[in-house]
Amino acid sequence: MAATPQLSVADQIRQLEGARKLVLKDVSYYPQVIQATLPIIGPSSQVEFRRWGSEFLAEAFATPAVPLSSKETLSLVVLDTLKSLVEDPKQDVLVLRSVIQAAASIYPLAMRWIINNSYDSTTWEKMTAIKTRIRDIWDTAPLTVRICCVKFVQRVVLAHTSSVNPEPRRGDPLDISRNMVPLNHPALDGDQLEAEASGLLDRMLSVLEDDARDVHNPLAGRMQQYVERLVRSRADIFDETGRKRAMIDQASAVEAKRQRTATLSSQPQIEITPLKHGENSLADVFTFTSNEGLRKFSVSETIPAPLAAKISVRTIAQLDTEILQRAIDGVRARLAAFHEAHQQPINPETAPLDVEEDDDDYEPDYYAAEDTEQLMNKLDSSPSDERRDLQAPVLGALALPAFKLPPPPTLDPEQAARVGQGAIARVFGTMQTLEEPTTKKSKAGLNRLAASSYDRDSWITVIARLATRANAGLDEITVKEEDSTLALPTVSMSDSIREMLYAYVLEDFRKRIDVAVTWLSEEWYKERVQQRFASSPGQSHDVPANYEKWTLRLIDAFLPYLHSQDRVLTRFLSELPELTVSILARVNTLCRDPSLVNLALTSLYYLVMFRPPVRNIALDTIQDIWTEYEDARPTAAKYLQRWRPGFVDAAQQATQGTGSTPVGTNGAVVAT
Amino acid sequence: MDVANGTTAASAPVTNGDREDSGGYKLKFCTVCASNQNRSMEAHLRLSQANYPVISFGTGSLVRLPGPTIHQPNVYPFNKVSYDTMYKELDGKDHRLYTANGLLNMLGRNRQVKWGPERWQDWQIGVPRTEQGKDRGHTGTEGGVVDVVFTCEERCWDAVIDDLLNRGSPLNRPVHVINVDIKDNHEEASIGGRGILDLADSLNAAAKEERDSIGAAAFDMASAASRMSFDERVPEIIGEWQERWPNLPATWTLAWF
User: Fold this and answer.
1) What interactions and quaternary structure are annotated (chain B) (predicted)?
2) Which residue on chain A is closest to B123 by alpha carbon?
């Protein structure tokens, strides 16, 4: 904006007006134009420029066409100018007027700025200085400035107090209030802000009070009324910040009422008569009035429920708490008296859930008393006439009538098994969603706590133990009872879990061989424990041989997929807790494929070398291989040469002679 | 003053059209009636002929114009239908009727003043009015605010005050809202228009005085009270004006945009 000296003031103003027209057409130019004009309209420039500039600023910060965020940024730029303009004691009235208008628009923005940028105390100090100056000239400035001071103070009060109606849906962007000030803000103290607002509001209202007291003022009476009302609502605002304002009228009504009753008697007026003897309805217990007509009046039949609810809520809200307290005490006393009169054994069908004859015994499923929620559910689904019966029960005893839920349909064992399987499937689902642990932790073996870490491993342990231990000792009982009437589930729970484990391992047996080992170790451990238990005197259980059965199934299942480089077999065999002849016999069958002979023999030889307890049966198996498979003889002979010297020679001679096959000793050998 | 008394006939400059622009400071005005057709538009025209920045509105829910019977008014939405469209429609419907009751004459005048009736409640105060360049009295109203609002009926004054209170005065800009009660007919509208122009002239003179007399001179806190500002003088000016126009009862308040 060229404020060149050769131009007249009028010409320069015309130029500035041109710039203003430009920003009015496109408000995005405001930052540039304001930046450019600030030096022209500063405190030392001619009054025409100061007037134009302050008016321009007031307009810029008022217009809704500029978004608040831009105004916030712009306000940081102009605060210095505004401050020096407003602080000039010889400032032109019209300039002051516009500057204060601009400041009124900026104040909430500046407050929001300091709330969010607490480091920028200098900006807030400028704003505070402007505020102080406006407060100082408020009483002495010409009226036209004074009204703007009041307006500014109104903005300050609004910003310093909690919003009257914080209504997010209204989304008033200018609703910057005390609520936004965080508790531990370094620059702003909510209580101080509110105290300042209170003081400012007092000052605003004192003007009215002074006028109203003037007896010569014909409007004094009416003004006095308004002043009182204003003072009251001011007191309300500061007394109950944050509370609902809608209740003010009611609260004051209650206040008035309380004062009236207080003059009559210190006790609230309510007569509580003891219940008459004999049958009493529930309504009788809660009725205090002696008016027969009122007693007979049935709310439920004449007034729609929603209306009754509304009336009740309103009434309760306005009730004197003392009266309410006395009424409650009265009803309580009546109930206590009633209860004493009707001491009778508790009917388990109707007693509430937590009341039992014998408190020590917890038998939750023995009988089914209903809780409120069940009652409500039943009410919801019952037809309305039934509901009315429930609302006004006339009873000998005060207890609610006995409600019985229909017994659940009987669950046959197959259904139970199916549901059980569903549950297990979910556990598997959970386990499978878990990532494989990236780093292998050292294994805790059988001593691990099943569900200590919620990783895949612990879930596997949980599942394996569910399969093996959950019903250990139960599954064989039924087997023994020959003419049992109980229909056996076709698949036992344990077996279905085992099936799932089996399938799970086989899905990717190379990776999941550790799962198989964990599982089979659990099986083996459980069997050992059971065997020890069964061998103790007085017990004669058959111990089901799940370990061997499932080990064989697993081996059978994955053997066909092995290739010559697989080390999984070696690992599996070495980690299994117990090896039997039949397990090793399966390894034997591998040798039908010449490419796998080496694998089979190496695995066996590994056992011979590193698992002395099974050395013998492993060597027996190698002998069998030597006998059965000609292709395997060179390697087998090499191993046998060392551990069973003489066998090969004897065997060769025997084959040449009788052709009989040497057989290894049968029997289980424990690896541990 | 061109018009010294409400009962005298209008003086030449007003009836004959535009007054010569004397330049200098000008207050910005706004005229308001129910339908933004008769009273507010008459005043709008007068003020614009006197070169004042002026805009106008209606506070009703719809624009209602008399129809063939009292039960068949012609109703239009605000802000959507131009005076020109209304003129053409009524002219096509019943040229004789609408000429006789003065509607065509009124609409014909209005379409020379601005595009169409605007509703007060829909006015976005403070949003620049740069698109209405062809409206009479547009110059000076680009900022989208005014200094004085004239309403032509107490109902409209109430509506304006209510609306301003509801808006919560986000702009922090003071505005004088003055009601000048005018009966809703062409004759009274014309008289009322002259009255409003007279009041506008008086107000503007005071505003000019304020700017000129204070001028560059520093304001001295101690003696400031003795010098009356424009805002302070408004009630006095209205009082003097009321004596000149006793048949146009006025109400005033200071409100905020």
Assistant:
1) Component of the cleavage and polyadenylation factor (CPF) complex.
2) A64
